Amino acid sequence: MAMNVGQDGDEDEVIAVINTTPLVDVMLVLLIIFLITIPVVTHTVPVRLPTETVNPLQTKPDSIEIAVNKDGDFFWNEKLVDATTLLARLKVASVKLPQPEVHVRGDQTTRYEFIGRVVTACERAGISKVSFITQPPARGG
Asked: So where does this one cross the membrane (predicted)?
């Protein structure tokens, strides 16, 4: 600890050093208080929460799978169809009870225009449920 003793006439000089000891003391006290109170606050009512797993989409026999390749060709359950035939088949499928789901598989390089045509055809035919099939992420890493 340093101390100024008996300098000649410089009693009005401003001390430029800040004493940080009280600040450190206060911070340590706050740290101890937080360390003690946090475990008390985190106690809650013990409940058993339900667990849920995400199951991959199971293709039902009554679902329709429409694939669109990168060239914009439409495939109805793996058979090539044109846009007119696609719309006609969707109209027939839309009146079935229960109405089948439509699963659209689009190549990742397919222009959105071709996928949009399938969605528009489903809308015009009155299909109420259209799903997009994607590749699940690779596991591991």
From this structure: 20-41
